[in-house]
Fold this sequence. Notes:
It is globular and about 45 Å long. A 7-stranded mixed sheet has the order 3-4-7-11-10-9-8, with no helix packed on it. The chain has one helix at 22-26, and strands at residues 19-20, 36-39, 51-52, 81-84, 93-96, 116-119, 126-128, 137-138, 156-157, 163-168, 176-179, 184-187. The chain has 1 helix and 12 strands; from the N terminus they run E-H-E-E-E-E-E-E-E-E-E-E-E. The model is unreliable at 1-16 and 21-31 (pLDDT under 50). With 189 residues, the chain is mostly beta strands.
Amino acid sequence: MHDEQDQDPGIGKPAPGQAVAPADITDGAVASDAVLFVCATCGIPLTEPLTRLPAVPEPPFFAWWDADEPGPSPATVPSGCYAIETEPYGAPLVATDVPGPAMPRRGTKADVHGQWLVSQGPRGNIVINPDDARGLTLQHASSACCGATPDGGMNQLCACGTLVATLCSDCCLPYELHLSADHVRAVHP
């Protein structure tokens, strides 16, 4: 019989370049290890190595209405980091009788009939600084004055043509990129 102290500390840890199980990036098991995210379809790296934060930070205050030039707010997540979104985010937006944020870090939203909307999008998205993404192109964007909104769902394509993420970059919204947990995987660099 072996004590836990006798066990090799490297057992159960993925080798460099090996996929990290989804539980590993959501339960904190490798919270101190950097990972990079790759397209689950083709394996192309979509980020540089990123370190996990314990939660998605609150977006920095930005008086977008006083900005000299239109453009995105400061990023919610610092460069070189990622966090897991625990709440529903993105499309679909569905009607509700209870007013409240349409999705995390966003104010209320109503449809053309004045009915409040809330997200029933996926949970578990990987939220990163959009400037940390590599090789993604904008497929489509929900209408906004100067950037993309998450209202229409995933809007970022991998080079292989797979939709993998949702960019939020309009001036009055948090500047975030949500990698779809169903369309990317984490690997150790």
